[in-house]
Structure formats: structure tokens, C-alpha cells
């Protein structure tokens, strides 16, 4: 069996373009561009003057913004110069609010202190209950619990003292 012929024929791109013919005209040609109507020197001067003046809409917008800014400045001046009475009232309100906040904080502190005292009382009463339960353990009244050695030794000492007396 023979080998396959995988050669590709070479085409000259310039010759192929010539064979296709001239490209179709889709847009304006150079000749159209050069022969377009041009403005006269007077028309150019008028256009430049219009650009220097700027657009009327922009000028109107700037005037409105300036008016708004002036109004804001007047309001701020009134607040600063003529609004001293309002400032005093605001300061009084702030002082009252601060006093109320301080009172609330003091009340909260007192509540916390009371809770701490209650917790301390509960802890001491709980210790007494534990002491009674160890006595019950030693006498065999409670079953299945572990007795702490220090409490056991304290109990033994108390018993010895009672026997001596």
C-alpha cells in the first residue's frame, strides 16, 4: 500500500484577491469624505463663541445650586447666631438625661449588691446543709455518697471531745 498524498496546493493571496474582483463599496469613500460640505470661517467663529459662553442649561443649574447654598448658609448662621436660646434648652435636657442615667446606674448597682448578699447567705446556708449531710453520712443515714476526709476528721475530733467530757 502506498502512502497518502497529503500535500496542499499553494494559493497566492494577491492572485486570489484579483480573481475575486473589486471589493463591494459599503461606506463612504475617500472622495466622499474630501468633498463633504465644510463650514465657512464666520460659522467657525460663531461656534467658538457659543462654546466659550457655555450652555444655558448648565448656567441655570449653577444658579439654582448657588441659591440653595445661600439658603443653607443663612440657616446655619441663624442657628449659630440667633439660636442661643435653643442651645440652653438642649443643654438643660442633656443634663436631665445624664442625671436620669446616673440614677438608673445606681439602682442597678444596688440590685447587684443585694443579689451578691443573697448569694452569700445562700452559700453559708448551703455549707450548713452540707455539714448536716456529712453527719448523716457518718451515722449511716445516707447511702451511696462519698465523705470528704477533712470533714470526717473534724467530726471525729468533735466526738472525742464529747467522750472526754
From TrEMBL:
Top-level taxon: Eukaryota
Region (Disordered): 15-60, 73-142
Biased composition (Low complexity): 15-24
InterPro entries xref list: Fam133
Residue ranges, compositional bias (Basic and acidic residues): 39-49, 73-131
PANTHER family: FAMILY WITH SEQUENCE SIMILARITY 133 MEMBER B-RELATED, PROTEIN FAM133
Family: Belongs to the FAM133 family.
Full protein name: Family with sequence similarity 133 member B
Taxonomic source organism: Electrophorus electricus
Amino acid at each position: 500500500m502506498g502512502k497518502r498524498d497529503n500535500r496542499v496546493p499553494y494559493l497566492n493571496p494577491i492572485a486570489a484577491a484579483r480573481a475575486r474582483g473589486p471589493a463591494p463599496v459599503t461606506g463612504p469613500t475617500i472622495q466622499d469624505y474630501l468633498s463633504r460640505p465644510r463650514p465657512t470661517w464666520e460659522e467657525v467663529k460663531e461656534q467658538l463663541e457659543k462654546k466659550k459662553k457655555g450652555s444655558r442649561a448648565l448656567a441655570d443649574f449653577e444658579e439654582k445650586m448657588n441659591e440653595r447654598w445661600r439658603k443653607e448658609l443663612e440657616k446655619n448662621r441663624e442657628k449659630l447666631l440667633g439660636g442661643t436660646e435653643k442651645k440652653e434648652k438642649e443643654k438643660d435636657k442633656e443634663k436631665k438625661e445624664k442625671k436620669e442615667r446616673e440614677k438608673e446606674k445606681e439602682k442597678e448597682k444596688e440590685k447587684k449588691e443585694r443579689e451578691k448578699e443573697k448569694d452569700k447567705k445562700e452559700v453559708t446556708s448551703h455549707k450548713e446543709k452540707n455539714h448536716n449531710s456529712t453527719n448523716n453520712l457518718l451515722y449511716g443515714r445516707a447511702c451511696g455518697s462519698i465523705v470528704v476526709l477533712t470533714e470526717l476528721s473534724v467530726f471525729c475530733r468533735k466526738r472525742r471531745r464529747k467522750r472526754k467530757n
